[in-house]
Design brief:
The complex is a heterodimer of chains A (about 575) and B (about 120).
Chain A (H helix, E strand, L loop, with lengths): L12 H9 L7 H8 L18 H5 L9 E3 L6 E6 L9 E12 L5 H10 L4 E4 L11 E5 L6 H14 L6 H24 L5 E2 L8 E2 L2 E2 L2 E5 L7 H15 L2 E3 L4 E6 L5 E7 L5 E12 L8 H7 L16 H8 L11 E4 L14 E4 L12 H4 L11 E6 L3 H4 L10 H4 L20 E4 L2 H7 L4 H17 L20 E7 L1 E5 L10 E3 L5 E7 L20 H18 L2
Helix pairs in contact in A: 4-7, 4-15, 5-6, 6-7, 6-15, 13-14
Chain B lengths: L1 H17 L22 H5 L10 H5 L4 H7 L47
The chains are: A alpha+beta (about 575), B mainly alpha (about 120).
């Protein structure tokens, strides 16, 4: 053991648990790293045994040495979605470029990481699989420390830890809480410089107090749709390019370059001409490749709950997971955190309003005060596949006046109705799915529900409303508002996978840790590929824009950290 | 006699399919598209014994993706050849197939993006 080694007792509970239950190459890393590097470090086994002492060799399994694929955490199963990178012959590498920092992935954490590193004096390259920067969503948030008492920050930290079912790394939550205001302001400023119409919505959509302490927010809004954070990151990339960051698009990273000691020295990426370029990173590689929702085998393994849901993204194939795993990193254990919602079919501000809700078959399925972010848990079978409908009547503006969220009046609802002619504003036209009808039966047809079934559901619901008691699901009496008066409205939502937000084990510097809990030299991980920030069954919607806020913040911090190494 | 040969040729793809022979194993690709323009298998698939799927770069040797994007700019709500996901660099093979029916890959997520994919 080196001096830096922490014993399991010295590690925090989160890190200890991920090392204990997560997936990693464990001890056999040291003996097989040579073949991985593509650097000609083929000196055989000698010199590779630095980690053969202590815990490492104890955990090594004889069968793994010949393996072409990763293994389950108990070593018992071979995982086809973790293929070992094949060494790339030197003759296939067209050129080698050297930078201080190489960022893999131009998304909501990769672009900020690159610009932040550049502003702190580093030469920076970004390699990106897509032909441009990509990101999703509109809102990214941080706490403005100027108007937020420390007690409020800590209360927020406590709330987010609870939202993650106490399975996250509290240090990373605190890091977001104490640095996000600064980071999100920085992103807004730099994106504006690139031409973005981004605005700071401040406290607008956020909770105003916690445990009685006032909160102050920085809420970046890249919108309205169809403008999203995708366009926002492209505008931020304009600023980054002006600052001197070099972007290499349509160049998927295929493997990391490592030396025999396991230090990450760079990355090899494949260009559109099929030729390879080696990017050497003097200070470090920052992996920001996002999740793996489009890798079916990986999804089915880590989070089988989402097998039947549609995906919102494309090409999120978990490339970074494969690279980081084979570099010695640790993947958080099975049971990853998912993010499913639908802010497009109808107004986002009405998604958590407890109107009557029916599943795809037209039957009530839940106490409707359960938030949209959790409804996927009731709709994960192949038939429902995330589909449900919110149903209300002509009186909704008065009946739901004091409900959580913000009501959109009938004139505004037309913007979400595919049957209404004319151009729509602030929505994705292909995703709007709200309907109006004079009878329940007619509405049912538009919602793709058997009319008789919906009529029976509404009849039963209205009976319970008349009683003022929800005998079927226990919803509070004041939320039992009947569906009686035409016109009737229905929002046919389908929750789909926005993101999977569990990932690789990292420390507070966002440096990848290996199976011994030791930092992997030269390898940093941010964005949804980074672990430790969540841990619950579902991504919490407590803070609007937490996900993007975390991506910006950790990108901003890691860029600065690596540049200063 | 000529008629007989012609009808056999017309039926050949079906016969081969029934025999379980992969369509592209036939001497001439049976489809009405590239084969109809006189292209040989090797021009796309190469001469290696084991025929690999055709990569997009091969398509681009004859087809100009920028030009295609201009042609389909007014097809509907969005331009399939210049979209939010891939720009003009979406892999042709996602939608266009040579040896089976082509498909509209937009439809899965965008139910109203209807158009015919040749």
């Amino acid at each position: 053991m080196s001096k830096k080694d922490k014993t399991p007792e010295e590690m925090d509970a989160y890190t200890r648990d991920v090392i204990d239950r997560g997936l990693s190459r464990r001890g056999f890393l040291g003996r097989t790293a040579a073949g991985l590097a593509g650097l000609g470090v083929l000196g055989g086994l000698n010199g590779l045994n630095a980690k053969e002492t202590g815990g490492a060799s104890r955990k090594a399994e004889a069968g793994s040495l010949a393996g072409e694929f990763g293994k389950s955490s108990d070593g018992g199963a071979t995982l086809s979605f973790l293929p070992k990178p094949k060494a790339i012959p030197e003759k296939d590498i067209k050129e080698t470029l050297t930078f201080d920092v190489v960022v893999i992935g131009a998304g909501a954490s990769g672009v900020p990481a690159a610009l932040s590193a550049r502003e702190n004096g580093a030469s920076v390259a970004v390699v990106q699989k897509a032909p441009f920067a990509l990101a999703q969503g509109n809102t990214g948030s941080g706490l403005d420390l100027a108007g937020t008492d420390k007690a409020a920050v800590e209360a927020m930290v406590g709330r987010l830890i609870a939202d993650s079912n106490h399975r996250c790394n509290p240090k990373l939550i605190r890091q977001w809480a104490y640095h996000s205001g600064e980071a999100v302001k920085w992103v807004i400023d730099r994106a504006k410089q690139g031409g973005s119409p981004v605005v700071n919505q401040g406290n607008g959509p956020q909770m105003k107090t916690i445990n009685g302490y006032p909160l102050n927010w920085v809420t970046s809004f890249f919108g309205p749709k169809p403008y999203t954070t995708g366009e926002g990151m492209r505008h931020l990339a304009v600023t980054a390019e002006k600052a001197g960051v070099k972007f290499f698009y349509r160049m998927p990273a295929v493997q990391l370059v490592q030396n025999r000691a396991g230090q990450v020295l760079g990355v090899i990426a494949k260009g559109p001409d099929g030729k390879y370029t080696r990017f050497m990173a003097k200070k470090g590689v920052i992996l920001a490749t996002g999740d793996y929702q489009n890798n079916k085998a990986m999804s089915d393994y880590f989070i089988p709950d989402i097998r039947n849901f549609e995906r919102k993204q494309m090409e999120k194939t978990g490339d970074g997971f494969v690279m980081a795993y084979w570099a010695g990193g640790v993947i958080e254990p099975i049971g990853h955190t998912k993010m499913l919602h639908d802010f497009d079919a109808g107004p986002a501000t009405m998604c958590d309003m407890p109107f009557l809700a029916v599943d795809r078959g037209g039957r009530r399925f839940v106490n409707e005060t359960v938030e949209m972010s959790l409804l996927n848990n009731y709709l994960k079978d192949a038939k429902n596949a995330g589909h449900y409908s919110q149903i209300f009547d002509a009186d909704y503006m008065t009946a739901a006046a004091n409900w959580p969220g913000r009501l959109v009046p009938p004139e505004g609802l037309k913007n979400y109705m595919p049957e209404e002619p004319g151009p729509k504003k602030g929505v994705f036209e292909s995703q709007v799915n709200t309907y109006k009808a004079d009878t329940i039966e007619e509405l049912a047809k538009k919602l793709e529900i058997e009319p008789a079934v919906l009529a029976a559901t509404v009849k039963r619901y209205n009976e319970l409303c008349a009683k003022g008691k929800d005998e079927d699901f226990g919803k509070p009496g004041d939320k039992m508002v009947p569906v009686l008066k035409a016109p009737f409205y229905g929002i046919h939502r389908r929750v789909r996978v926005s993101a999977i937000c569990s990932g690789m084990l990292v420390d507070e510097n966002h440096q990848a840790l290996n199976a011994e809990g030791q930092p992997i030299k030269g390898l940093f991980i941010v964005g949804n590929l980074g672990g430790g920030f969540y841990g619950g069954v579902d991504y919490p919607l407590t803070v609007f824009g937490l996900s993007l806020g975390r991506c910006y913040t950790f990108g901003y911090l890691v860029g600065r950290h690596v540049a200063k190494l | 006699m000529r008629k007989v040969i012609m009808s056999f040729l017309k039926a050949a793809p079906l016969v081969l399919a029934l025999l379980g022979v992969a369509a592209f194993a036939a001497p001439k690709a049976p489809a009405t598209r590239h084969a109809g323009h006189g292209l040989e298998c090797a021009q796309c698939h190469g001469t290696a014994k084991k025929k690999a799927p055709v990569e997009m770069a091969k398509c681009l040797e004859c087809h100009d993706n920028q030009e295609l994007a201009t042609k389909t700019a007014k097809l509907g709500a969005r331009n399939p050849h210049d979209n939010r996901h891939y720009g003009v660099w979406g892999d042709c093979n996602m939608c266009h197939h040579e040896h089976k029916a082509s498909e509209n890959r937009c439809l899965g997520c965008h139910p109203r993006f209807t158009f015919k994919v040749p």
